[in-house]
Each structure stands twice: as structure tokens, then as C-alpha cells.
Design a protein that fits this description.
Layout lengths: L6 E6 L2 H12 L1 E4 L6 E6 L5 E6 L12 E5 L3 H10 L8 E3 L2 E7 L5 E5 L9
Parallel strand pairs: 1-4, 5-8
Antiparallel strand pairs: 2-3, 3-4, 6-7, 7-8
């Protein structure tokens, strides 16, 4: 059996604010189960499940050791959509036939939107 990476745990200061952020800007839906401290965020389009868990006071949030990368065909259009909803991405960077832009979630976790998945091989 081969292991599959399907879930990413986010330790956050405000679980509800994090859920609202990923629901509003990336179309995730929250799923809560009674007596479970983890809220699962699932995309209707599939992909990895984000799991929001209340961070202990000792946990430092927003470190740059992990970045969530969302595949987006049209980075500029998505940036405009997010800006209208209050999420500002930084400058769009271009590299090897694709573009990307970066932002942070409410806990300072790095996120990126990238068209890399749609770039022609060897572009």
C-alpha cells in the first residue's frame, strides 16, 4: 500500500476565522463533528483536506516552513476576485511558463496561487 498525502493540519489561533477565510476565498466547506476538536475543510473540486486545530499558546503560527499552493489557471483574475473580497495578494511573479502570487491566511500561514499545474511541460 502506498501512502497518500491528503490532509494538511493547520494549527490556528481562531478556528472560525480560519474556516471563514478558506470558505470565502477558496470555496472550501467546513465539516465539524461532535466532540472533535479538528474542523475539516474540504473543496468541492477535490484535493487535499485542510484540518484546522486550535493552536496551543506555545505554538508559533505563521512560520514559513510550509506554504499552501492552490492551482489556479488565471492568477490575475483570481487575484482580482480575492481583492474584491478583502484578500490582497502580493505581486505576480512569472517563471518557467507559469505565474504565481503570495498572501497569508489569518494566522500568518503562507499561501500561494499558482498556474504551474497548467503550464506546458518544458515551457
Amino acid at each position: 500500500m502506498e501512502p497518500l498525502l491528503n490532509r494538511i493540519m493547520l494549527y490556528v489561533r481562531d478556528v472560525q476565522a480560519t474556516c471563514n477565510f478558506y470558505e470565502r476565498h477558496f470555496g472550501f466547506a467546513s465539516e465539524r463533528h461532535a466532540d472533535d476538536r479538528v474542523v475539516e475543510l474540504k473543496s468541492a473540486n477535490g484535493g487535499a483536506i485542510l484540518m484546522a486545530h486550535q493552536a496551543a499558546k506555545s505554538v508559533k503560527t505563521g512560520q514559513v516552513t510550509v506554504k499552501l499552493v492552490f492551482d489556479i489557471k488565471d492568477v490575475e483574475s483570481f487575484k482580482e476576485q480575492c481583492m474584491a473580497q478583502g484578500l490582497k495578494f502580493g505581486a505576480t511573479h512569472r517563471a518557467d511558463g507559469y505565474s504565481f502570487a503570495n498572501a497569508r491566511d489569518p494566522d500568518g500561514n503562507s499561501i500561494s496561487i499558482s498556474s504551474r499545474a497548467f503550464a506546458a511541460p518544458g515551457a
